[in-house]
């Protein structure tokens, strides 16, 4: 009878949870281009890129329930070439989506008997982006530590009697139960947010802004002398224990290796001073609203509407009371987080002053957001409790929902643009 950890966290925002569960259920269990067992195996591949045992365990169970071949669970060498060929795009989308090109798309669509159809590929891309982003949420909210799902333990399927969260779509009754439980929860006491109010007020008198590449450069400079920010994020959160098993090994580093190739491939800063500047992705040239939505909806019926509802739902959440209580617009704070995440993936909004990010987000919060977004497997289990103590629990969950949706949209924009270029 206990609630599953992801739905417990998302249950602080029942309207969003409804939208999420509808999308999850549609992707995994409703009619679509891909066979059901393949859908769950693709989810396993995606979750493995971030060493997310929590999601791997859930989808191993669902893969077997869908009649999947248990031999496939031995690793990529035991799956059909068609699925294995998806590994490259999985790797790129998970860590450096700006590298995806129409040549990657063409390769998948033109490999003799192992070729993908456009509809199948769109379904697969949405699944990959969905699971990559969900892994960020899982680590960001500490769900990976849930012992009930063997989050940090060895890979082991749950009993068939247990319910997977993607099946928890019992409509209003389920949401009402979550709402009832969450209303009874005692939320964290909230400190006064004078510093945030002052930062938001300063935005309105700020006349000179840095562009987004300078913002990224500043992030890199803050980490110089300590090595990679990912490697030393524990130093920034002094006193926090690393995400490690009792034997000292990083969780999942060995057990999930069979589901991925090139495990050392990871996130790198989009703009590096020692390299030629990568082409910036300009939203006015290719946006979700004007381009991505129609393409994905045409090739995979109705998924565009579900994704669009989810993007709009997280944007409309009013739980960021830290701004509202001070008479400020919550949308300013949310847009700062959203655009900072897109900035890390090289996506530029020409109508946005990126100085707002530095005004709104304290350094520790920026470190948290960047870690959860770009290398969630390095997220410390205690970071969720420690970042910005003046946040209510529900507001911290809201931040993680913004990370989930902004990251997913960023991956989709790059993948769908490449598909569009291939079609043209």
From TrEMBL:
Superkingdom, natural source: Eukaryota
Stored InterPro entries: AhpD-like (IPR029032), Sestrin (IPR006730)
Transmembrane segments: none
Subcellular location: Cytoplasm
GO cellular component: cytoplasm; nucleus
Pfam families: PA26
Gene3D superfamilies: AhpD-like (1.20.1290.10)
Reaction(s) this enzyme catalyzes, per UniProt: a hydroperoxide + L-cysteinyl-[protein] = S-hydroxy-L-cysteinyl-[protein] + an alcohol
Keyword list, A-Z: Cytoplasm, Oxidoreductase
One GO biological process term: negative regulation of TORC1 signaling
GO MF: L-leucine binding; oxidoreductase activity, acting on peroxide as acceptor
Residues making up the signal peptide according to the UniProt record: none
Family to which the UniProt record says this protein belongs: Belongs to the sestrin family.
Protein name: SESN3 protein
Upper classification of the organism: Eukaryota, Metazoa, Chordata, Craniata, Vertebrata
